[in-house]
Amino acid sequence: MINVPSKVRWNTVTLPRIALILSIVLGLGGCAHQRHTDSAKDYLQEGRYELAVDDFKRALKLKPNNTDNQQGLKMAQAGLDRWLLDVRSVAALAYKNQQLGKALLLYSKLVQLDSDSESLWRYQQLIDQLTQQHAMKLSLQYDSMLLGANFGEDIQGLDVQRGQAASHIAFKLNNYQSSRSYVESSQTQEYLAGIETLVNPDYFHTQDRIRDNRHQVKKSRREAKRYKSRKRALNADIDRMQQTITQRASVLENRDPATAEYTRLERALAEARKSKASLVAKREENQRSLDKYEKRFHHAEHDLEEAYERLAYLPPTVEQEVFDTYAYTLGTLSQTMSVDLLIQEPGRRHTQTALFTRSDSEHGAHPTIGLAAKDALELSGQNMRAEADKSAAALGRIYLQELRDEHRRKLAQKRQRESHPGERLELGVGYLLAGDQSRDSQLESELQQHLFREFGVAGEFPIHHLLNLYRTGK
Predict the structure, then answer these.
(1) Partner of 241 for a Cys bridge, out of 276, 310, 376, 419, CB 3.0 to 4.6 A?
(2) Residue ranges with strand state E in 363-458
(3) CA gyration radius for the chain?
(4) Angle at the Cα of 89 (from 83 to 94), degrees rounded to 5?
(5) Three-class DSSP category at 471
(6) Element housing 336 (H / E)
(7) Between the CA of residue 120 and those of 12, 50, 129, what are the distances in Å?
């Protein structure tokens, strides 16, 4: 082997690889540049200036000196700037006319593209104002020691106010009920009782395999020998029959075909040939049987050798773990505390029951199975009441969330009944800012189409993104 200097190896091996990688990277970059360029030109032709600007910038990032794309970016940016002037003018007018939902979306768009401080201030003012305006306003009365100091105030979409509001709800807890039970049960567990020596089942299985293989070797050898002997006999019979055929054919050549003797000799020759064909068929069948038993013989011999080799490495006995079952008594202490949560609002009063349940077990020491003694821990009545209060607070929160969701559904119904496009847009924005503010893709699409009809497609209106640029409220 010729020793190649490391420097030479680096030049002859590494450089082609680097060149290949660079060619792939440049090829991919070229494809991406062309893709962004084509897309930008299509958007520019369609008048979708914002998307054209984005794709021209991506293309120029890959190839900064492309003059066509530089010129295309200038044209797209000019069209987008003219569009933004219209948006800014209409945003101010909408704000003046108290079309706050529309103003919010437009100022948000200005913040997204221009990031000017005035638009940002308007956006933050409107998002806070509209979120609070469309939240469900509640006045809650509750015992803060039982339900928590800020019960309900952290639920998104609720505006919990001090004093009386449009909806006043009182929460009270009473009728604490406790119960205690202790039950003993029988338990079992397996444990390692010892080690015992057993006959190795693999050892005996291998011995059985050896006996079977020896029998197969003996049987297949005997059968192969028998078929070999028969083959020799058939070969001899075929040779003799061939001699008979040759003799009869020779005699037949010297006889007159018109005589009766010729006919007799011809019939005898045909019978000899038929007999030979039968012997040849028997020899072929015999050969197939011989091949089968010789194959069995070789396989049996091979398996026998493997079994002898395996037996040499197998121990006659093995050790096995012995397991037994250990029985012991387990005590289970169960404690339950329930409390009624009374919910009272104008024209409605109902009760829900909160429940807290806990269980703990105890048992004696059982060294046999490695179990240390354990006593069941019993919570005090005060702690059980505190846990029941937490369960009641969770029920109360669920109730408030259901009220909030119903409030949002009513906003959606109100919007469905509204026929004026401008009012439908205002109510749509309010709906998206109300409740848990979960997304509504269909409504977002409707608002987007409304704005496209008014402002054209020069700029985009991703509604969800515009409503969540810089959220500061709950």
Answers:
(1) 276
(2) none
(3) 49
(4) 120
(5) coil
(6) strand 317-345
(7) 60, 20, 14
Q: Where is 322: in which H helix or E strand?
A: strand 317-345
Q: With H, G, I as helix, E, B as strand and everything else as coil, classify residue 98.
A: coil
Both tokens assigned to 289: 């049987």
pLDDT at 17: 58
Q: pLDDT band at residue 14, thresholds of 50, 70 and 90?
A: low
Q: pLDDT tens digit string along 233-252?
A: 999 999 999 999 999 888 88
Residue 314 has pLDDT above 60, yes or no: yes
Dist. CA 425–CA 431, nearest whole Å: 10
Query: Closest by alpha carbon to 339, among 380, 379, 384?
Result: 384
Which residue reads 């005898």 in tokens? Answer: 268
Q: With bands split at pLDDT 50, 70 and 90, how would you rate the model's confidence at 199? A: confident
Question: Residue 209's closest CA among 311, 101, 293, 85?
Answer: 311
**b/e code 374-408 from CB counts within 10 Å (16+ = b):** eeeeebeeeebbebbbebbbebbbebbbebbbebb
Task: Give the CA diameter of the chain.
Answer: 144
pTM above 0.85, yes or no: no
- Exposure string for 231-248, b = 16+ CB within 10 A, e = fewer: beebeebbeebeebbeeb
Distance CA 196, CA 167 (A): 78
In this prediction, residue 448 carries a pLDDT of 96
Give the pLDDT band of residue 16 (cuts 50, 70, 90): low
What are the tokens at 103? 């103003």
Beta bridge partners of 250: none
Residue 287, classed as helix, strand or coil, is helix
CA distance 247 to 250: 5
Q: Residue 220 is which amino acid?
A: S
Q: Among the residues of 47-155, which ranges form H helices?
A: 49-62, 67-96, 100-113, 117-134, 144-147
* Contact between residue 105 and residue 463 where contact means Cβ atoms under 8 Å apart: yes
Which region holds residue 148: left if phi is over 0, alpha if psi is between -120 and 50, else beta? Answer: left
DSSP-derived secondary structure for 187-243: EEEEEEEEEEEEE-HHHHHHHHHHHHHHHHHHHHHHHHHHHHHHHHHHHHHHHHHHH
**What is the rounded CA–CA span in Å between residue 366 and residue 448?**
72
Average pLDDT over residues 153-161: 89
Contact 190, 325 (CB under 8 A): yes
Long-range CB pairs of 287-291 (<8 Å, 24+ gap) are 287/231, 289/223, 289/227, 290/224, 290/227, 290/228, 290/231
DSSP-assigned letters across all residues of 436-463: T----HHHHHHHHHHHHHHH-SSS---H
